[in-house]
Amino acid sequence: MKRKAYILGAGVSGLVTAWKLLERGWEVEIFEKEPFIAGMSRTWRWGDFLVDVGPHLFHTPDPQMAEFWESEFGDLFVKDDYRCCNVKGKNFDEYYPYPLSYESIAKYPKEVARRVITELEQANALDRTKARSYKEYIRALVGPTLQEMFFERYPKKVWGLSTDEMTPLWAPKRVELRQKDTAFYHGQWNAAGKFGTGCVYDEIQKRIVKLGGKIHLSEPVVGVTTKGHEILELKLKNGRNLSVGTQDVVISTIPINVMSQLLGFACPLTFRGIISVFIAINKEYAIPDKLHWLYYDAPELIFNRISEQKKLSRDTAVPGKTCVTLEIAYSKDDELDRQSDQALVDRALNDFLKTGLAKKEEILATSIHRQSAVYPLLRKDYQHDLANAQSRLGEYNQLYTIGTTGEFSYADSQILFQKAFDLVDILTNQYSDFSQVKRKQNVTKLNEVVELAGRAVGDGHKPFIIAEAGLNHNGSLEMALRLIDKAVEAGVDAVKFQTYQSANRISGKVKKMKYAETVIGTEETLLEMFQRHELKKEDHVHLFDYAKNKGILIFSTPFDEGSVELLESVGTPFYKLASFDLVNIPLLKKVASTKKPLILSTGMSTIGQIEEALEAVKSEGNANVILLHCVSSYPAAPESMNLRVIETLKKSFRVPVGFSDHTLGVTVSQLAMAIGANAIERHFTLDRMLEGPDHVFSSEPEEMKVLVRTAGQINQILGDGVKRIQPNEYDTINAQRKSLYAKVPIAKGQIIERDAIAIKGPGGGLQPVYLDIVAGRPARHAIEADFPITWEDI
To answer: Which three-class secondary structure state does DSSP give residue 579?
Structure first.
């Protein structure tokens, strides 16, 4: 029986996935809301011209991808060196080659060039790792001058956000500084579609139909019926319902917020759209020289990019005439979105004439096209919302998401093709863990409270305190035993060590590299340092037995699969994995397969990488994971802690979240507990002055006792959030709260004038809120001056 795929959306990802699934014998139906295919990569005829939304280029540094495109569509490509410039100046006549290069910088005005070169020499790669926004990253990369010149107004124009609001994750993907002025995709295979970008996808459409696939245009999915983790039915706009079997798959390439809505939950992620205004011109070419497109950051111009299709796709050329595309970025319901097509065309044409690329009398015709979801809007905080949405979508066994809008990840054609290939391999490879529709990682739901050897860890429970002995035994079993003794005295919940085989942890050929937790100045190799601190199997047996006899939980961090087996043999009750093993999926799966709880540090990672790690754990049927927010700097500065990540991780993954603290002192750990950390891990030492990689930022026993006391009090201190008068406040109320007093003697029957009333303490009289009620009423009996006024007095 053929497997069946329902694909939502006939864009690039949907078409390529459908084509390749059909080739492997699947049955495929595509449902598209528009009356056309290819989305942003569509090409259509407008008068004498073929026009694109973009236009877009095909490019890749991957020889296999290039070979695939050549073999499948070679006769549909035009290969060339494609170039562009940033355009500036009052009259829009200053052209700056892009990408940036030292060669072009040398041609800037002397003072500007000198300042730029100085700033580039001072650029610090370390500063980029601290960047919290696009602006900070770019400044650390190229300096403030180039940032202001090229990476301030243009990004804001395209994204509708200030660069302070944009994620720094966008910068490394889009910015490059070269030595020489070169073509945009220099060093890569690149080409344009001979008949526009869409000609490639028109060809794929033909192949889909020939293979028996069905493409339903103007027929979107408008509803989804589910039960538990299963999708039962797809509801179409025309009223038809499609039954989805347990062995069928649903592949969504539509915007992630739309798919979320179909499944009944809100997703605040948004997209930027593109308005394309096409201008037909009675001249051979509009863009000068050998340039193919131009960038404009001037806020007074409505568009941000101008491209000329004729220069890209030669077979679309009309002698003596050309057509340019003005690209205008917009957001749903913004000022541009609300304008009529004619108003937008008029404004765009007027602004185009300001560039001097054509004269008014040369304009032949205009047209407009709107594409609503093109660029994922990468705000600084978008990853939290993305992780939430992906987690909810991932609960459905038959559902897969792919593509720029489906995954909320901007990607070029090469990436979209590769991801489609990967998904098809996952679905059709009999040796793949994912070849069954019911994916392992989505069967298990992670627990919000995790039991660690009988201790509940999660919201509403006392924070779990871990003394990380780590390598602070300096390779001495005797010192390791003393660390256990002192951990017991400090009252921590557990003591932790590190388990590894030196040869499997680090290369013996790496010289003079600092271990992540080493002190500056060591001259030994990493291998030598690890060998000096390595605990043997018999040491582990002794330590675990000793800790059990002392009544304290003991566990360890394994760094290789052999170490997991060692820890299993000594009966570790649970595990911890270090930040740099968060991406070590084989090790994660090995630990998760023991079905014991896992504590996972998240330093040096993105939300996406954390999600992948959790999926690996879930795929082994393990529901017990505790995440630790961590900043992998040793020691770490308090101001770099970003403790609110704890809240982000909790909201994103709905698991207990703690904090692995590498700062000096316990203040940051205390603050972490105050905002909800469910566990605290601190390095633990007998003496900070000892030689060794971790002692300097570790807690000594007395300091650890302070942390334990805080953990014991924190829930009582924080309370339940209900605002009420506390019993110990009543004395203060009586002593100091203000009330109404007689300012002067008031006789029985006398009307109490407002001027006769004072507001003062202590309490005992009516509250000041009743002033207007008391004023104007007769006194029931005499009230002495400076005595409180009560209800009995009026």
So the answer is: helix
What is the predicted pLDDT for the residue at 168? 74
The gap from C-alpha 197 to its chain's centroid, in whole angstroms, comes to 31
Which pairs from 359-367 meet CB under 8 Å and 24+ separation? 362/281, 362/282, 362/283, 363/279, 363/280, 363/281, 363/282, 364/280, 364/281, 364/282, 364/321, 365/47, 365/279, 365/280, 366/277, 366/278, 366/279, 366/280, 367/46, 367/51, 367/277, 367/278
Q: Are 320 and 282 in contact (CB under 8 A)?
A: yes
* Closest C-alpha among 478, 563, 587 to residue 555: 563
Return the HEC string of 305-343. EEEEHHHHCHHHCECCEEEEEEEEEEECCCHHHHCCHHH
What average pLDDT does this structure show over 682-689?
87
Q: Would you state the torsion angle of the CA atoms of residues 413, 418, 420, 421, taken in this order, to the nearest 10 degrees?
A: 140
Average pLDDT over residues 712-730: 70
pLDDT tens for residues 30-64? 999 999 999 999 999 999 999 998 778 999 888 88
Q: Is 550 exposed, middle or buried (0-12, 13-18, 19+ CB in 10 A)?
A: middle
pLDDT of 726 reads: 58
Give the chain's length. 794
CA dihedral 457, 459, 464, 470 (to 10 degrees): 80
Distance in angstroms (rounded) separating the CA atoms of residues 532 and 81 = 57
Which positions ≥6 away from 268 have C-beta within 8 Å? 257, 385
Select from 668, 599, 598, 609 the least CA-distant residue to 633: 668
Angle between helix axes 607-619 and 585-592 (nearest 10 degrees) is 40
Mean pLDDT of 16-33: 97
CA distance 84 to 727: 73
Beta strands in 662-784 (DSSP E): 679-683, 739-742, 757-760
> Residue range 148-167: average pLDDT?
92
3-class DSSP assignment, residue 266 = coil
Contact 304, 327 (CB under 8 A): yes
Evaluate if residue 29 carries a pLDDT over 90: yes
pLDDT at 773 over 60: yes
d(C-alpha 530, C-alpha 528), whole Å: 6
**190: nearest Cα among 6, 65, 29, 35:** 65
Q: Is the pLDDT of residue 745 over 50?
A: yes
Q: What span, in angstroms and rounded, lies between the C-alpha atoms of 53 and 75?
A: 22
Helix (H) or strand (E) holding 227: strand 221-227
Residue 714 is which amino acid? I
The rounded distance, in Å, linking the Cα atoms of 699 and 684 is: 5
User: Tell me, what's the pLDDT at 534?
Assistant: 86
Of the candidates 752, 787, 785, the residue with the CA atom closest to the CA atom of residue 770 = 752
Q: How confident is the model at residue 501 (pLDDT cuts 50, 70, 90)?
A: confident
Percent of the chain with pLDDT over 70: 89
Give the residue among 604, 550, 597, 551 at the shortest CA–CA distance from 582: 604
pTM higher than 0.70: no
Pairing mode, strands 189-193 and 77-79? antiparallel
Q: Is 528 in a helix, a strand, or coil?
A: helix
Write down the number of H helices and E strands in the chain. 29, 34
Q: What is the pLDDT of residues 114-133, one digit of tens each?
A: 999 999 888 765 566 567 78
Q: What is the pLDDT of residues 529-550, one digit of tens each?
A: 677 788 999 999 999 999 999 9
Highest mean pLDDT among 161-170, 335-344, 784-793: 335-344
Q: How far apart are CA 641 and CA 632, in angstroms?
A: 10
- Who contacts 353 (Cβ-Cβ below 8 Å, separation ≥6)? 359, 360
Name residues whose C-beta falls within 8 Å of residue 723's C-beta, 6 or more positions apart in sequence: none
Question: What residues are paired with 223 via a beta bridge?
Answer: 235
Residue written as tokens 């860890």?
A: 457
User: Closest by alpha carbon to 100, among 37, 25, 55, 154?
Assistant: 154
